[in-house]
């Protein structure tokens, strides 16, 4: 088996396409070599060997040893040196490199091959003893730490003591003799810790380092990281062994890192740092303050340390040329690592650079404008989920932060406001046009109105999937959850944070992107929806097939949805319109009446309110489709709970509180999720559906006249399992339609359809499609009913399932393609067979989840519908799915 791939001197056995085999680092080193760029020669041991090694009792077969020895000879031929030969010393680095860059893997070991004998040879040959001993002490420290497991803290202590004794501050001030002393202390320490001396044999050193890389693939940090990022253990890591070049050979040598464009703004400018007379990780380790690469950046930073452009103009020019070449070649922003040895440039790494969401947009748009990539490629370059960061106000990065606590970044965006401790207070503030932050130990469904009214939500308990977090994300409200160091005292209305006491009305700021809680107001940056964002969205819209609608019922949400580009409403949940203070009384009267006549009287009070709600939605959507769902939840959700509320309703209805309590108890259900809800309500109480249908039709006619755009309402019947259920409700709706048209003397087009949210409905979709003019997949309920898992109770065990590897993702967040998805696919096909022009959409949480959207495209749905804040994400994901 070929386990070793060499690169160097303008050619390589592998290339960038071999990422899986050679790891990201090895594949790109090979590619750079083939491009003729200056790369120290080396070789890569493949990820396949890593897998073989673990499958075969961690063995190192002779075949591998022979290939490594041959490859080392190859490096020697290119460099004119020989590994382990003091008269002509070849030193190497040993670097790990998986397919995806992975923290937790073994750190790089530099200067491998040095020992007490070869270091003297190196000092003689280079004519620079300080350089030789500096390299050796680095090697002993790195190798002892990462291969032998001797804590690097010991070495740092020794060095600190030594520097203090010598009265010097910088490592670069230490002389050759002084380094020799440090080296002796280091070696003594290793022997003391391990009971044996530091290994002197270069071959033993090499195999020790190679073995350490392969071992690190299974260490705790790496396995945890893989689990969190869904990286399979079977991928394995590669090992790169590469001839050393030296950035620590005095003032004409240096080491640095750079991005070909600014990774936080996306600006097209080389961006990076370097250090003169330094090696490897010194730049990132912060041992000395690094210097800017370019003069422009130095001036902007106001630094008095000269730039590379200034002090090494030739090497700088060479580097700029290489950076340009690599960006053109890879057609993406690159993250580069390089070293200058006595004025000569060497490239040590290139990869696509990580960037902020904002930079990603700018880079993609700029590269499309430069002709480097197509607009479709630009669309594919943006992670849809990352747009979330851009759609909310954020704290100005230059702002001073007075942090008083830390929680989970539960819902992005930043918000400032006065502290309130209850949802009612939040509403009062809202009514006075004041901004509130709702501070609760935790929130419950009763806090929805307060969460709506507040600018942001802060809880001291609960995780990323707590009620507060989930609801806030749906509303697009900033939220910090589980800020455990804060104390909320409802009785005294105080928030205690780091010994400071805050009261109602005191101003705080929360940052839902970082989880920070800050004192006072903090300067913010408003979301930038024009410019690059608009360009990407425009290109995405041109590329996508599916429409994107929003789930919205309030005028504010509908307007927001339109401003984010929604092409209609896919789900208007009418029950959300019933919670209003004024309406809830009429709703309760309706529910609690024994007789149909009383119910109709109560419904008559609701009719004008519903009509104006719908008219406003139709006006805002101006002719775009609007799907309105008939009342869905079990009625007891609207019931009065506290004694005060019960008394109030009883007085209004002119009955005794006891009678009311009895009626309330009669409505109790053991399993409301599977109880008296959805179309079952319309079957039991058709007058409710009739009132809603009337409100919809009258509003459609009114809004059609006021906007001059014909409005075609789509009425959706929830929780249908039987054709006859739909037939029954549809007949009521049709009757009302005829009546309203006759009364108004106008014609009106409308559609009646159903949600597919029960397995039976999916199985019988071809039959249900006889009556349904559209299907909307209600994947929240369909997931609940397919799995037989209650969404409200699932969080306690689904996380355990995920940790134990039984499920990969929460099926309520990302559609379970194999199971629930199969039902969706089947129902879509059956529906189309029975009614070829049937409209198909999805309106569960999944409508805003990129991987679920990819599936919807595959099945050929006509649209996805999601919460307003996710509309841009869905537009982009739908485009990516179509490209
Ligand atoms: P990481 O994956 O943590 O970036 P690397 O393997 O890239 O680790 O090594 C870190 C640094 O070590 C490189 O950026 C480079 O500065 C230095 N380095 C690695 N190999 C060599 C080498 N052969 N010659 C000189 N410096 C090297
Ligand atoms: Mg690196
Ligand atoms: Mg449902």
Give a structural overview.
With 883 residues, this protein is of the alpha/beta class. It folds into four domains: 4-243, 2-Layer Sandwich (Dna Ligase, domain 1), CATH 3.30.1490.20; 254-355, ATP-grasp fold, B domain (D-amino Acid Aminotransferase, Chain A, domain 1), CATH 3.30.470.20; 392-525, Phosphohistidine domain (Glucose Oxidase, domain 1), CATH 3.50.30; 544-574 and 604-627 and 687-882, TIM Barrel, CATH 3.20.20.60. It is 46% helix and 17% strand. The protein has 34 helices and 34 strands. The strands form seven sheets. The chain has an eight-stranded mixed beta sheet with strand order 15-25-24-17-18-19-20-16. A hairpin with a 4-residue loop joins strand 24 and strand 25. Helix 23 (643-653) packs across helix 24 (657-666). The radius of gyration is 34 Å and the shape is elongated. The protein starts with a strand and ends with a helix. The mean pLDDT is 93. The chain binds adenosine-5'-diphosphate and magnesium ion (2 copies). One magnesium ion is lined by residues 337, 349. Adenosine-5'-diphosphate binds at residues 40, 93, 95, 108, 110, 242-245, 255, 280-281, 337, 339, 348-349.
Task: List the defining traits of the structure above.
elongated, binds magnesium ion, eight-stranded mixed β-sheet, eight-stranded parallel beta barrel, magnesium, 4 domains, Dna Ligase, domain 1, metal-binding, binds adenosine-5'-diphosphate, D-amino Acid Aminotransferase, Chain A, domain 1, ATP binding, alpha/beta, Glucose Oxidase, domain 1, 34 helices, ATP-binding
């Amino acid at each position: 088996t070929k386990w070793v791939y060499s690169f160097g001197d303008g050619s390589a056995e592998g290339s960038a396409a071999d990422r899986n085999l050679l790891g990201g680092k090895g594949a790109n080193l090979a590619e750079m070599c083939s491009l003729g760029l200056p790369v120290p020669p080396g070789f890569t041991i493949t990820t396949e060997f890593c897998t073989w090694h673990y499958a075969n009792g961690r063995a190192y077969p002779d075949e591998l040893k022979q290939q490594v020895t041959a490859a080392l000879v190859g490096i020697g031929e290119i460099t004119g040196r020989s590994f382990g030969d003091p008269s002509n010393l070849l030193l190497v680095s040993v670097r790990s490199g998986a397919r995806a860059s992975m923290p937790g893997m073994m750190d790089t070991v530099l200067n491998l091959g040095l020992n007490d004998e070869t270091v003297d040879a190196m000092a003689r040959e280079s004519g620079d003893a300080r350089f030789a001993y500096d390299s050796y002490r680095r090697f002993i420290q790195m190798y002892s730490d990462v291969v032998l497991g001797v804590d690097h803290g010991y070495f740092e202590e020794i060095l600190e003591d030594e520097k203090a004794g010598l009265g010097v501050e910088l490592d670069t001030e230490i002389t050759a003799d002084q380094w020799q002393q440090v080296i002796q202390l280091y070696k003594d320490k290793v022997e003391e810790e391990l009971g044996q001396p530091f290994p002197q044999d270069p071959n033993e050193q090499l195999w020790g380092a190679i073995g350490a890389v392969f071992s690190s693939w299974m260490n705790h940090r790496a396995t945890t990281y893989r689990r969190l990022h869904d990286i399979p253990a079977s991928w394995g890591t590669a090992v790169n062994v590469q001839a050393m070049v030296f950035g620590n050979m005095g003032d004409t040598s240096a080491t640095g890192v750079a991005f070909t464009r600014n990774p936080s703004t996306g600006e097209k400018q080389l961006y990076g740092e370097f250090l003169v007379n330094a090696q490897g990780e010194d730049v990132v380790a912060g041992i000395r303050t690094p210097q800017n690469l370019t003069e422009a950046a130095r001036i902007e930073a106001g630094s008095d340390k000269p730039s590379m452009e200034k002090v090494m103009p030739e090497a700088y020019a060479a580097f700029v040329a290489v950076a340009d070449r690599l960006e053109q070649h890879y057609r993406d922003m690159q993250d580069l690592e390089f070293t200058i040895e006595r004025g000569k440039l060497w490239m040590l790494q290139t990869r696509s650079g990580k960037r902020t969401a904002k930079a990603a947009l700018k880079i993609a748009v700029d590269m499309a404008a430069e002709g480097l990539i197509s607009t479709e490629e630009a669309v594919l370059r943006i992670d849809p989920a990352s747009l979330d960061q851009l759609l909310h106000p954020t704290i100005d990065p230059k702002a001073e932060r007075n942090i008083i606590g830390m929680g989970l970044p539960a819902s992005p965006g930043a918000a400032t406001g006065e502290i309130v401790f209850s949802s009612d207070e939040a509403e009062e503030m809202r009514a006075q046009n004041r901004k509130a932050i709702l501070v609760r130990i935790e929130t419950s469904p009763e806090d929805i109105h307060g969460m709506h009214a507040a600018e942001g939500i802060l809880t001291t308990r609960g995780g990323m999937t707590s009620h507060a977090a989930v609801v806030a994300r749906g509303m697009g409200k900033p939220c910090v959850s589980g800020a455990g160091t804060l104390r909320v005292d409802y009785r005294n209305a105080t928030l205690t944070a780091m010994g400071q006491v805050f009261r109602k009305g005191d101003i705080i700021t929360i940052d839902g992107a970082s989880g920070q809680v800050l004192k006072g107001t903090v300067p913010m940056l408003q979301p930038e929806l024009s410019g690059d964002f608009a360009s990407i969205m425009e290109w995405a819209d041109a590329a996508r097939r599916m429409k994107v609608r929003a789930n919205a019922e309030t005028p504010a949400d509908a307007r927001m949805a339109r401003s984010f580009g929604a092409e209609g409403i896919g789900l208007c949940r009418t029950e959300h319109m019933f919670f209003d203070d004024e309406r809830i009384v009429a709703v309760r009267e309706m529910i609690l009446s024994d007789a149909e006549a009383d119910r109709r009287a109560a419904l008559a009070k609701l009719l004008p309110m519903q009509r104006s709600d719908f008219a406003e939605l139709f006006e805002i959507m101006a002719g775009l489709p609007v799907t309105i769902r008939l009342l869905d939840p079990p009625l007891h959700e609207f019931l009065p709970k506290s004694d005060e509320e019960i008394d109030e309703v009883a007085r209004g209805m002119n009955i005794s509180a006891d009678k009311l309590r009895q009626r309330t108890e009669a409505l109790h259900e053991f399993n409301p999720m599977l109880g008296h809800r959805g179309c079952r309500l319309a079957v039991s109480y058709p007058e409710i559906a009739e009132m809603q249908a009337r409100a919809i039709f009258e509003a459609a006619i009114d809004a059609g006249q006021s906007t001059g755009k014909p409005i075609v309402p789509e009425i959706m019947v929830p929780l249908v399992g039987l054709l006859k259920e739909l037939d029954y409700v549809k007949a009521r709706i049709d009757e009302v339609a005829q009546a309203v048209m006759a009364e108004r003397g106008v014609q009106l087009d409308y559609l009646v359809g159903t949600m597919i949210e029960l397995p039976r409905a999916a199985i019988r979709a071809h039959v249900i499609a006889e009556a349904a003019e559209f299907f909307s997949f209600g994947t929240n309920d369909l997931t609940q009913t397919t799995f037989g898992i209650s969404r409200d109770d699932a969080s306690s065990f689904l996380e355990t399932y995920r940790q134990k590897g039984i499920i990969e993702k929460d099926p309520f967040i990302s559609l379970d393609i194999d199971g629930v998805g199969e039902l969706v696919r089947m129902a879509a096909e059956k529906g189309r067979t029975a009614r070829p022009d049937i409209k198909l959409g999805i309106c569960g949480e999944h409508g805003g989840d990129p991987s679920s959207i990819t599936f919807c495209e595959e099945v050929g749905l006509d649209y996805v519908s999601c919460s307003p804040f996710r509309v841009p994400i869905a537009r982009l994901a739908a485009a990516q799915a179509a490209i």
